[in-house]
Design goal:
117 residues, 0% strand, elongated, single chain, mainly alpha, disordered C terminus, 6 helices
């Protein structure tokens, strides 16, 4: 539903119902029966990131444009190889940022959209 429809429904519900609905302890009993939250393992993500970085490093290390880009960058000469390397790194960083924001939006139920209103 969109926000306008939710606002109209909230207003209608507030007009016809005063205060909370008594549940006689139902919510407390349900919360008590819920299983404990499982702890997330972060090592698979760390291992995947490390494997991805290693695979990229090994595949690009033998490429002449990569070594020329690093050499020119370290010497302070802005060559085409250096600019290609910098643009690649900036675009991958921007993609990782966009992916992180999208995942946070999915995980926390759109709370990031509410923060920017």
């Amino acid at each position: 539903m969109n926000d306008e429809a939710e606002d109209v429904l909230d207003a209608l519900l507030r007009e016809h119902f005063e205060g909370p609905v008594p549940d006689e302890g139902f919510c407390a009993r349900v919360v008590d029966r819920l299983p404990a939250r499982r702890r997330r393992n972060n090592w698979p993500m760390a291992a995947g990131i490390l494997a991805g970085v290693a695979a990229c490093w090994f595949s690009l290390w033998s490429d002449p444009i990569t070594s020329a880009g690093w050499r020119d960058w370290l010497s302070g000469y802005p060559s085409t190889s250096t600019m290609t390397l910098l643009i690649s790194m900036m675009s991958m960083t921007a993609l990782a940022l966009a992916w992180t924001i999208a995942e946070a939006d999915d995980r926390y139920g759109g709370s990031s959209r509410l923060a920017f209103r």
